[in-house]
Amino acid sequence: MPTVALPMPSSLPVARNPILREKTTSVSTYCRICEACCGLIAELDGDRLVRVRPNTAHAHSRGFSCNKPQGLVELTYDPDRITTPMVRSGGPGEFSPTTWDKALDICAAKLSAVRDEFGPQAIANLRGNPPFFESAGFLWGLGFSAALGISRNYTINAEDGASRLTANEALYGDVNRFPRPDLWHTDLALVIGANPLIARSTRVSEPQSREALDSVVARGGRVLVVDPRRTATAERYEHISIRPGTDPWFLMGVCKVICENHQMPKLAQRGAAISGIDEFVLLAKSFDLDECAAKCGVEREAIVDVGGAFTKAASAVVYGGTGTCAQRFGTLTNILQDTLLALTGNIDRPGGLLAGWAAIDLTPQTPGVKSGTRRSRAEGRPEVGGGLPSAGLAADIAHPGIDRVRALVIRGNNSVLTSGGGGKRLEAALEKLDFSVAMDLYMNETNRYADVLLPVTTMYERDDYPVTTGNMQLRPTAYATRAVISPVGDARDAWWVFDEVSRRMGLGGSCPDKELQALAEARGERPTPAEVIDRLLARGPVKGLTFEELVANHPNGIRLRDTLPVGKLTENLPTEDGGVQLYSLQLRSEVARLRAYAEPDATWPLRLIGRREKGSQNTWMHNSRLVYPDGYTFAAHIHAADADACGVEDGGEVRLVSAAGSIVVTVSIQDSMRQGVVSVPNGWGHRGGSWQRANAFRGSNSNELVSHEDVEAVAGMSILNGIPIRMERVTS
Fold first, then answer.
1. Mean per-residue pLDDT, 203-227
2. Which listed site, 17, 350, 570, 578, has its alpha carbon 20 to 30 Å from 103?
3. Domain 1-6+79-159+385-563 -> CATH class
4. Is 216 left (phi over 0), alpha (psi -120 to 50) or beta?
């Protein structure tokens, strides 16, 4: 396959921060590990990055940062990191180093062979969480899929937020019509299934979440935290302990209290146009409040108190995290969160739910494809927001048929550990592929099955702009960064990899802006990420901003607005009558399913929930000594009464058993736990790949307790919270 030779742009892969060339010791940059995207000051000793610290002058984060970016400094120079292109030389995990030219030629030839014989539908993407925060990799990934004709994109949506997207569709007619909670201006905040003081941002970009919630209390308002565990957030504010997986019973109880309040019609009129309100009021009133309280394990008086608080508050928000999504009734739970606000007139008004706003907003202007219009080929799992569930990939590879997946492009993903109930099935399926290529920092439990493993850059080694998170900000800002160090070893930016492979396939480059690509190639050059960012900025609402302007003249970012816009969330809603739909088909079907659902018998007396550990990010921070020191012990948190019932002491081993499987874990008795609830951190169970510390800690993969067949009905979510289990003492 001939190589299309174009000059390497000056931005790849050498250090390209002008400040660096002056050999100063500090450089402004920002973190790209989670949605918060905090501003950082990078400190260098010559060309080596030695540490990062919070940037107190940053317009967005204002001096906050957690320990994850410092942990990533360690991982950047980790000897376990893959920094050379590798080709499979034997069984899974057996690789030999090669050159970039040879690796890219193999990728181009193998992908072309599959595409020529079976068509582009035989090639699929498997994307994890980290690539979402890499601007150029994200954009060129879209261009790569377009160039090859790839339409199957498997993502972690079904373990993360697909049910929130289906709730958007039910309420607002579009999965992409995403509400943001106006935390800085509200008088009442209900936080449910989220722990924003530890996991700073889930579907919002707000580093100052503690300060925002504290400001509610300072104004005389209330912050109510609904969670089975007394998290750091629950500890700081008012905690309402709930039985895992029963959130819709709690929320429906609160709705009932609101609907029976004589002020409710007046309150509902102050917000956006609402449809189906009379029908929903009748539905809510048909619920028995005592039954709601019994189902969710919350005192009746507490539900009445919350309902009264929403009725009285001048403004209110509900902020739900991943815990509200990855459960049996995730779509219903997310619908009801916004319904509380619709009933009290808090949609599209200050202090309530508002639309995002950004200098670059990639949200499609037309409604997205309806959820479930496309489904996974073998098991019929719904595609939501353009993403097929990674849990359905194994069957789509292994199930016979001309349309099965035969080639896979893996990007920053470890679905063998994170896919709900599908890890072992996926391992077996990956070996059936004709070809797979992976781009990552480490060899992990998933990409060890790849044919080619390509080393990509960390966030410190690449240019970036918050393309995908800008419209999540509650205080809109703009900022950008050049790379602060040269890539370690032979690592390259993912955008360049995408561009090279598609060129070597004879399909042209992967730049998402084809007009820009044509202009650059007419000059004999390759378009750069900064040029794409500049064109996106020029099309946005803020004029005069460029990538270089931000880097050179606004290293601490620039504040664009004090608040989010009012009226944008419900403007031209693509619903039948243009109003927010309170009595949607999804609501009615899920309420019927809720009422018909029978809890498992006493064989399964406990309920399993996940836990985000401080500094952890799914599976990929576990090799950091800073985040996980030598004394770290993987443990399930349990209540003392449950330990006594099992006959196990603190530090003892138990077997957690579900209908789907079992794992052995060490237990830690914690007074923060609700009785009857077991909490296990997610993303563990390392047993392969290049990360030696992660392998040594091992831990257990809680997803082995997850059923592959039993999924949330509407969004196809894996049920990761509220899993019925029992606990057995392990004797030596």
1. 96
2. 17
3. alpha beta
4. alpha
